[in-house]
Design goal:
This protein is α+β, with helices and mostly antiparallel strands. The chain has seven helices and 17 strands. It has three domains: 71 residues, 2-Layer Sandwich (wza like fold); 94 residues, Outer membrane lipoprotein wza fold like; 82 residues, Outer membrane lipoprotein wza fold like (Roll).
């Protein structure tokens, strides 16, 4: 559960007490404390008109973005902030019905905006937004990563160019963000501080492996890391045994269920700069042959 501990440890290090919903409950009741939250269909608003219980109560934002309010009828509120809803009710009630009305508006139930979290987290699912939410807050709310998590998070949104950590990646392609414990603390903090938005799909990816067999000191399976090449992979496996041949290295790469590519590699040529190092892919199998004496 290393990655789970990572997310929680960083949360403590950044001084965050948890996701916005938790902080709201600590302030008394399951209500939003963010006056800039923009309401939408499905949200339940709690309206309190001071000294007028007949006008106070819960109203639900309907599918068309309107609420039905006593005396005023149907009012369009879709996309308005909580502050703007309060100002609208105050203005309309003061116009024809009340003298200097004092009104409070809160979001009792958040149902119009959400993030979908899938993959290797303890509690995947739909997480409703109650204002701003960072990647760290989402992961903490979901209980952190599972033991199978790779430490890489893929974020897909309708406008991926809005994700600063990914930069301009040319359109709406998913953005991959690493929160690996091997990162420098500043880079890790920046990744976890990423602001998420309505409609984002966040995927915590699984660890992927490559395999090394033959004349290496520590054959077996190893996790794929960014920038991994054949030279680095052999080094991770402890290097060649005294019987290993640098010129008898082969990568078996599965192209489909029935098709496998064989890539012959000469480690000596790569070390000498005669040939480029070969990037590895997930599920690659490296086979190292014996020297002929």
């Amino acid at each position: 559960m290393r990655m789970t501990r990572l997310a929680l440890a960083v949360a403590l290090g950044l001084g965050l007490s948890g996701p916005p919903g938790v902080r709201a409950q600590e302030n008394g009741g399951n209500v939003s404390v963010d006056a800039d939250y923009r309401v939408g269909p499905g949200d339940v608003l709690e309206v309190e008109v001071y000294d007028d219980p007949d006008l106070s109560g819960l109203v639900t934002v309907q599918h068309g973005g309107e609420i039905s309010f006593p005396l005023l009828g149907d009012l369009g509120v879709n996309g308005l902030t909580v502050r703007e809803v309060r100002e609208t009710l105050t203005r309309l009630l003061a116009k024809d019905y009340l003298v200097d009305p004092q009104i409070a508006v809160r979001v009792k139930e958040h149902r119009s905006q959400w993030i979908t979290l899938v993959g290797e987290v303890m509690r995947p699912g739909k997480y409703y937004l109650q204002g701003s939410k960072t990647l760290l807050e989402l992961l903490t709310e979901a209980g952190g990563f599972t033991g199978q998590a790779s430490g890489e998070v893929v974020i897909t949104r309708s406008d991926a160019s809005e994700i600063p950590a990914g930069g301009d990646n040319g359109g709406n392609e998913p953005v991959r963000i690493s929160v690996s414990p091997d990162q420098p603390p500043a880079q890790q903090k920046a990744a976890l501080s990423l602001q998420l938005g309505n409609g984002d799909i966040v995927t915590a990816t699984s660890t992927q492996f490559f395999y090394v067999s033959g004349e290496v000191k520590n054959p077996g399976s190893y996790p794929i890391t960014p920038g991994l090449t054949i030279l680095k992979a052999v080094s991770v496996a402890g290097g060649l045994t005294k019987f290993g041949s640098k010129g008898k290295v082969e990568i078996l790469r599965k192209l489909s269920q029935s098709d496998t590519e064989r890539i012959k590699v000469d480690l000596g040529d790569i070390e000498g700069g005669k040939k480029p190092d070969v990037p590895l892919e997930a599920e690659d199998i490296i086979k190292v042959g014996k020297r002929v004496f």
